[in-house]
Structure prediction request, 225 residues.
Amino acid sequence: GQNIDQPTEMTATEGAIVQINCTYQTSGFNGLFWYQQHAGEAPTFLSYNVLDGLEEKGRFSSFLSRSKGYSYLLLKELQMKDSASYLCAVRDRGGGFKTIFGAGTRLFVKA
Amino acid sequence: EPEVTQTPSHQVTQMGQEVILRCVPISNHLYFYWYRQILGQKVEFLVSFYNNEISEKSEIFDDQFSVERPDGSNFTLKIRSTKLEDSAMYFCASSVGGAPDTQYFGPGTRLTVL
Prediction:
């Protein structure tokens, strides 16, 4: 079956660092994405991992371990505007590029 | 910066009616997708489309759904006979190529079925 697990909610303080974990069990794997989604808006792309290791992109970094079915998104120097849902998504191996999304982690950044 | 656009932003319809949701993908993109998100739930894949045909569809995408690229710019999702449970936000997305290309999402159409 297809299963992507991530915490439902997290709270962090402005200026701090937060790590959002994601574990997945999918029938195929062709990359893992992290998206940010503000309430009532569309998901926006943050990062992509297909090989093991860390990808860094400004204040955001994402890590992947394929053998463990595990990824995390690291957000540094948190800002109030980072309050949003963070969606972990796995692309299937099939030719149709089906992407399976987790339920998302709602991050609250407090002053 | 180019973006995916969708119309209408909000559609209200009666149960049993047909609706067509419209999308204009980014102009040089070749792969197109529809997703839905029921309020408070996760984003769900519906269908992917490439080279004028469906590449893959989910179990949600039954005979009530169809997609079409009627011209060089539009990509549409038709729901033939809407049900109450079709009420959701529908997102169109596009990408230049397949994996590992990033999918860019449109702002969504909120469909309300009464």
